[in-house]
Input
Amino acid sequence: MKNPSPSSINVIKITRFLWAATLLSLPVTSFRYFPGLSETTFVRPLAVYPLVILMLLLGFQLLGKKISYPLPNSLIVLGAFLMLLLAATIFGALHAPLDLRGQTYLGRTIRAWVTVIIGVSFFVSAVWMNRNEENLKFSVRWLLAGFVLTIAWSGLQAVTFYTPLIEKVTVTHWQLAFSMRELVKTNRISGLAYEPAWLAGQIATVYLPWLFAAIIMRTHFTRFKWLEAFLFVLSGLLLLMTFSRGGLLTALIAVSLTFLLVGANTMRLGRDWFSSGIKRGKRAAQNWWAAISLRIGIVILVIGVVVGAINFLGQKNYIKRLWNTQAESLVDFIVQNSAGARAAYNWAGMSVYKQHPWLGVGLGASGFYLYDNLPDWSLTTVPEIARQLNPSNRLYPNPKNMYVRVLAESGLVGFAFFLAFQFGLLGDALSFLRKPHYMRLVGIAGVCSWIAISLYNFTQDSFTTPNIWINLGILVGITRFNLNNGLENSA
Output
């Protein structure tokens, strides 16, 4: 076999460095310094900078036939979905929507396609850079390094909010040096992200799945055997301090469902350990009471953590309103819990889909139709909608829901391919659950990520967000590598 040349080794080192920089910078979601973007563009991942260089370098290597790229089935389905989006965009131009606040159809579709290309680049790079266990460990280590940075900055925010040690205005100046957003005025932790909900989404979709999988598999990615468990606890604490209802619910459901699916052995071991301490047998009385005390202490600790978390969340009216609202209808409940604007845009997006059910209105064009389809109740009861309808407002509306957006902008045909892509990824993750060692680890993280991302997409509609691409790209890369090995071994 031919040994790689020094130049090839250097290219590998550069690509690994760029990939590490991409993963490390993921937490910064609204980087201030992006030329050509307006002040109303909030999704600005810092990771785009190293990602672009990485994709260019890999692209040149591919064109020069110095590397080969196996084509996963999921990328074929994704390509079909993109072709449907292109057809929907061309067809949508025939509707000739009127300009909205200086925005034209061509301008919005070009902008939307740029976001799609960026998002797909995150996915493709993750597939490309993860083909074996060594690549996986490298990726997860740098992901966790980025999470440690998030924890450190979040800790600084917490000190600012809850102690007199650092003035809030000082930390605000520091944050505005790299972010579009100052510190949240309601003392909710946002980390390096634009807002607390974005931080909660990052934790639930990117970091928590790997930490949870490492705990379930009783393995670790670094030489510190305690690190994953420690970061898992800190991730739960950070989620609480974001006070993000959607983020908390997403993380709880994703971890719980994944545990029910893959945690049978862990539950059995826990049950056996717990019952072994209760059975006295030949054990001395002193040892028996010590075992009983330990188990009782653990039960009390778990109950205390749950009760403490509920009491902590209950300090915010934003959370407390969920069970204190005196609503006369479902709409009234939604409005009183600060979800009226989101529900109204979801409603309007579905109305756009019903008017253009097959191919939609074109990628990025749903905003031209949303204001005309807002429900009547939102016009009088939701202050945010009133501000949006103000003629002086320059914001371009969006459906605020990925599924509604895909339906409205690509129709039922595009939505079918989008679901085919998503469920193909779930199939890859589930297939790994039956395999040993690190492949099962990838399967557990993949299932947890898939559930979290599926829920997260109900509350966001941006293709640029790395959260919805990175972990699933790693899953596809490992899947494709092992599939190729299996075919070679069977030949």
User: Anything to note?
Assistant: Residues 6-279+316-321+400-490 form one domain. Confidence is low (pLDDT under 50) at residues 487-491. The chain has 20 helices and no strands.
